[in-house]
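Now for a chain:

_____
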Amino acid sequence: MARPYTPLSLGRRLWDTHTRVMLCLLAGGVLLAGLMASDDQGIGFAAALGTWIQLLALLAALATIGWGARLLLQSASGGAPLGRPLWVCSAVALAVYTVFAALPVSQAEAMVQAQSWSIIAVNLLLSLTLLIISIDVRHPAGQDGLATSVERTGSLQLRSNAGVLLMLVALAVVAAIVARGLVFSHWAQAYALPAGMLLCCGKAWWDTRNLVGRSSRWPVRSMTAAVALAALAQGAYSHAPLALSVMEAAWCYALSVVALVMLMASVRHTLVGWASAHPERLQGAEWLEQAPIGMVRVDGAGIIVHANQTQLEWLGVKTLSGQPWTQALTPALRSQAPEWMERLRAGESLAFEQSIETRHGVRHLQTDLMVAPQGFDDNAFLLLSHDVSMQKLMAGRMQEQQSQLVSLVSAIPDLVVLKGVDGRFLHCNQAFERLVGLTHSQIIGRTTTDLALDAYLPSEVETDLQARHSLSPVVYEETLRFADGGYQGRFEITKSAIRSATGEVTGLLCICRDLAERSHARKEIERLEFFDVLTGLPNRRMLMDRLEWSIRACKLRASYAALLFIDLDNFKDLNDSLGHQQGDRLLCEVGKRLIASVRSGDVVARFGGDEFVVLVEHLGGVREQAENHVRGVVEHLISRFNQPFSLDGVAHYSTPSIGVTVFGDNDVHSAEELLKRADMAMYQAKSAGRNTQRFFDPQMQAQVNARAHLESDLRHAIHDGELQVYYQPVMNGHGRLLGAEALVRWRHPGRGLVMPIEFIDLAEQTGLIVDLGTFVMRTACEQLAAWADNPLTECLTIAVNVSPRQFRNAGFVDEVLSIFDETGADPSKLKLELTENLLLGDVNETVCRMRELKERGVGFSLDDFGVGYSSLAYLKRLPLDQLKIDRSFVNDVLSDVNDAVIVRTILALAHNLELEVVAEGVENAGQVDFLVSNGCERFQGYHFGRPVPIGEFERLHGFASCA
């Protein structure tokens, strides 16, 4: 049922504003009194403060009289939803007495006695008003609470104007008589009257539990606090000078609350009267038509006057005007319409829920029926409906989630118990049922004592009490024995108090977890953390811990140990050919063979992939003996590895490359350093042909460091402009310049001029060759563009070496073409020199890229022909323009018959393939004569000129002729 509106309802913001204003006025009075008490007139603080509070009390009393009279007059005009409540009459009578009590009077004895009984009368009426208000608006809980409320409030409503006047006179007379009787009894004033006032406060405060909403509860509780303060001041009136001021302040606050309530009730009465007198304005209001609530206005005869658009859409009809009001109800509820009409005419408000079938599904509506007089039709009423479908859906989902939560808790293997604040079981899962040997229905609603569970839960009562008084969970261990199956084990029990938003304990949650399962899980976690999942050997983490410990032990015992880094040769081939499953089996077999090949105290670990590490300790205090012992261990391992491994009955051979480092001196301080040394030695073993071992040599470290420094310096050199391009001339047999080869030089700021042989291989391995080659090619193209502007140099060509890694780069062709576009160089003047190693890759891709550049005019030369992968078939497919005879053949062409034959063969081959030939490494005239006599027309070597910078190159040659 919907909760009715009460005349005491106030908005939260309005109530907060009123409270702040009253507090500010009282605080201002204290400040003003303090200022006046210190002036020259000598007015006392208490007198000044009392005057200020009396003024406020007079204003509050006058406001109460005015708004109370207006409210009673409005009620007398008819159609008011408030009626003629008794508490309004009581408040008016209270205000009248307050005016007299707050007025300053002379000090005559008669006037003092009159003021005393008026003060008592005010306190009596104040308590009576509070009591009437609390009874008048309370709302008992229950299904028929609304009807009960109406019955009770009916006795507190005055039926006529005469009744109002009679009640005002009766209240004034009774209050005067009782006050007159109490004025001569000091005991009654100091004790009986305050006690009675406090009893009224207690009764009112208790009734506020049932008030409808917080908007009605705030005014009543505020008045209750004011009356309680007035009661305390009444008790101290004869002893404390300021007690009267405190009492008057309480009156002022209480009357301001009453005046504010009556003001808002009068405003609401006016608005309702206007709406009743002008229903057509409300019916035609656009906002009401589109409001998210449904509204149906019905006259006293039960005929629908108007229904807004929202209600029509919900019911699926175009109009309801002129039809019986039951058409706004679902068929299932129409039979109750006559009873509801009777209850409405009796002054009740009703609420019910109805469900309507729509094309979008079932819509649930909460509908309120309330009396709403229209003009002179006092029996007219309203149906207000709002959609609660979403609330229904959310409630259903919450119930479903709660059911799922209960199912989840029941499925948890731990013992879970939920108790109420009284110790009774509210819920338990199946694991707890197995513990106590009882069913769910036998447990719920009973306590541990009722079920005699002390044998199964020995510390239950004591720990429950401790958990209720603790802000953190209580955790302890206990041995539990299950009634079902007899299982006994050690359990960790956690008990947590469940608290409400206010911190009050509302229940207790208990979870019991079997420690045997946790112990097993801890061991499993430790195994996964420190051991390899595949082989079961110690993993890298455990190896590092053991290695650090071994380093410290060797220093303490002055002994040596050794670290063996083992990598399986060509393991990838096995994975690619037989699959990863067979590869994993081989790794397991290798682990077993390593364990069988070393001492029981030695550590065998899998470092990762196909890499294993063996730690051999206790090798004595002499390094030579330790090295000899380890060498024997390594040879034994290699011999064992030379025996086949059986994989599913098939023999498979796998050889190791082993790097060894012996430690125990003070030169090693960390496990990382030892692993790095053993790893370097292992790579030396691989370079030595695999299936062998190498011991770490400090020179290895020096070479690695030097290589690392050189790589770092080369990276900086490429970006800092330390590289220079030198040019070596290419001449014909008559000594005329045909072009040049661009060669890179590195002018190191510390080492001076560094030759290519020292850094080209490093650049190729690290990938820096791509940036380096791009720099040389761009510089050469810029020089070609400069030469193109000079008639003496416009026909010269430049050859640039291109490494296989640079040529295979995905963006090589686009990069070369962009350099042409940026520099403006003629592509036909550029020759790219390729090595025969390029043919070891994808030849089809190589030919495709060469032809793409060939179409733009770029020429190609095969460098160092004859010393690499010289395949005549590939030579035929490549779009070459030129061959360069390697200097190794030219150097001994005059003294070695074989070299002479090879040179003649290359020249004849090139002539038949219509390729140009350049002889490299020509150093004397005899070599020139031999080459010319055999048909060679282009030469390059120290005989014609060394590589020099571009300035010196141009100065030496002068560019006399390009023919």
User: Anything to note?
Assistant: The first strand starts at residue 293 and ends at 298. The mean pLDDT is 80. Residues 243-277 form the longest helix (35 residues). The chain is about 55% helix and 20% strand.
